[in-house]
Design brief:
Length: about 350
């Protein structure tokens, strides 16, 4: 019947439409899957890679050091004015002189009286009044805090009088200069007050002390120029005294050109240990279950795992073997994976 033909036609058309819609949905799903695979996953990897941090292997020296303030203790003799007058020195601070050398003149009225060195050594005009107290024989019994306080007072007083014209006019018994015995041993007494720093030093132990800038060892070269030859001094531990407020250490210094400046107070770096080699941050190193150390390195824009040997660690850096200088390493390896593509920041 005609009516039945139309009904059958509509049913068939509806089935074809449903089938066509399923095909379109499947094609759309496949297209989205392709788009996600092509773009979203690489984009996810890209952002993951951008979260990586890097450091470069560098060559250098790691130092386990402590900054310490202390005082220099040496043998010295003060030369005093025999009468009144104006003091006119002709020898520079720190200059070495022989016994009996002319150091300057006391000028009073029309007279000009020469003043000579009473012993060989280095001339210093920095008289602090502690020359009889701060001697090598008494070095181990010095109250460091008290001496530092006295030196601060003396320094403040000297600064106030430095530009005074009256200061050049002296009376009898006034200290003119001191001669420092630069051939005898010099001692350096320091206090370590860092509670987070352990100091494992023993008497007779040899270590290095680095001087601050401007106080390095110096010598004249053949051209006449003065150049720095070393900023470190070899020191021997004399005593280590544990106190409630820190550790007090007395060092004996053989290379004693340090005394030529006449300085008493000095801040130095005590070098407890040093390691030379190729350096990376500790956070770049990760370990397997057996305890072997590894790092992630960059090879052809991808990450690779490299085994290394840790030579030594000081603070947050390590000296390693197994990687060349200039190699890029990942410093947050927990976010890295092998063969991961790298996009440098």
């Amino acid at each position: 019947m005609p009516g039945e033909n139309r009904t059958e036609h509509k049913t068939k058309h509806k089935k074809r439409k449903v089938q066509r819609n399923k095909t379109v949905d499947l094609l759309v799903f496949l297209l989205l899957l392709i788009l996600v695979t092509t773009f979203f996953i690489p984009l996810k990897d890209y952002f993951a890679a951008k979260m990586l941090n890097f450091a470069t292997v560098s060559e250098g020296v790691l130092e386990d050091k402590i900054a310490a303030e202390g005082i220099i203790i040496y043998d010295s003799k003060v030369v005093q004015a025999s009468g009144g007058g104006e003091w006119r020195p002709i020898v520079a601070e720190g200059e070495r002189v022989a016994d009996g050398a002319l150091v300057g003149y006391l000028v009073s009225g029309g007279s000009k009286k020469p003043v000579y060195a009473g012993a060989p050594g280095a001339v210093s005009y920095q008289i602090d009044g502690l020359e009889r107290v701060l001697t090598p024989s008494q070095a181990d019994s010095v109250d460091l805090d008290k001496i530092l306080g006295l030196l601060d007072e003396t320094e403040h007083s000297s600064q106030n009088q430095e530009s005074s014209q009256e200061e050049a006019v002296l009376g009898a018994g006034k200290g003119l200069f001191k001669i420092i015995d630069n051939l005898s041993d010099v001692y350096f007494l320091v206090r370590i007050k860092d509670p987070n720093k352990s100091v494992a030093l023993e008497p007779e132990q040899r270590i290095r002390i680095r001087l601050p800038e401007g106080q390095q060892q110096k010598e004249d070269n053949p051209t006449g120029a003065v150049e720095v030859i070393d900023s470190r001094l070899s020191a021997t531990v004399v005593s280590v005294n544990q106190r409630a407020d820190g550790v007090q250490i007395l060092f004996k210094i053989k290379r004693n050109d340090i005394v030529l400046s006449g300085e008493r107070k000095m801040t130095v770096d005590i070098l407890l240990d040093s390691i030379k080699g190729n350096i990376v941050p500790n956070k770049a190193i990760f370990y397997d279950q057996a305890g072997k150390p590894y790092v992630y390195v960059v090879k052809r824009s991808r990450l690779a795992i490299a085994e290394v040997e840790v030579v030594g660690t000081i603070d947050d850096m390590s000296v390693i073997e197994g990687l060349a200088v200039g190699t890029a390493v990942v410093t947050n390896p927990s976010l890295a994976k092998e063969n991961q593509k790298v996009y440098f920041k």
